[in-house]
Write a structure and sequence with these properties.
Layout lengths: L1 H7 L11 E4 H7 L10 E4 L8 H14 L8 E7 L2 E6 L5 E5 L4 E2 L14 E12 L10 E4 L7 E6 L4 E5 L3 E2 L12 H12 L13 E10 L16 E4 L5 E4 L6 H15 L2
Parallel strand pairs: 6-14
Antiparallel strand pairs: 1-2, 3-4, 4-5, 7-10, 7-11, 7-12, 8-9, 9-10, 13-14
Length: 271
Amino acid sequence: AGDLLRVGARTGRGTLPRPRALSAVETRHLAPALRPTGLRGGLLSWDGRLSDDARLVTAIARTAAAYGARILTRTRALELDRDGALVRDETTGQELRIRARTVVNAAGVWAGGLVDDVRLRPSRGTHLVLRSEDLGRLSAGLHIPIPGESNRFVLVLPQGDGRVYVGLTDEPVDGDIPDVPEVPETDIGFLLDVLGSALDVTVHRADVVGAFAGLRPLLDTRDAAGRTADISRKHAVLTSPSGVVTVVGGKLTTYRRMAQDAVDAAVTAGG
């Protein structure tokens, strides 16, 4: 599937080589901590990597500003309608009204609180931070199948600074949406258990040097009565009766398409 995406994006094999099969010996050379029992080999594939998502967001905001956009940081949207937004400066508490010809609600997991007819089912994704030496100094990332699941994996992603990210979970979040989601011990235990299902080394709770979580703004559809893990990750662009355009769902890798669809809807809504 990854190679099909490469072909579709017209990325040359000089940038992303094609996948290839590995013997068990080659696989353990790249990932010495893998349990040898039952290991028949592996599949080596290549992918791009975003090293700093915060810098990407900053770069996009700076680009928008260069084209004339006004960027307001530390400002919370309180109300939206077709004519603009009521916002609050979180440093001073001052509220002000912003007028606009078209309003796009791209507030992520908070989008449903700004437009009444947008229903979301937030899902928490947790990552652990481990030391590379605790995992045998990986030379490649791992996709570890989650026991009992057919299409879910835990990713083990070595970083350039000696850390390894392990994730992620997919757990529903009920109630108020926190500004900074906390990582429960159940998420940590789940990820450590999945690691233990494939590794020949034991990673203990004390080996976890950090953890962080984010919330997915999944669209609550009529057929989404089951787990959040089963809800589509495709994005949706919705125009409410009040004229506000909302974009939810999606993934970071599709942010440009999400923006394109949202702008198209905004142009239509604005007449």
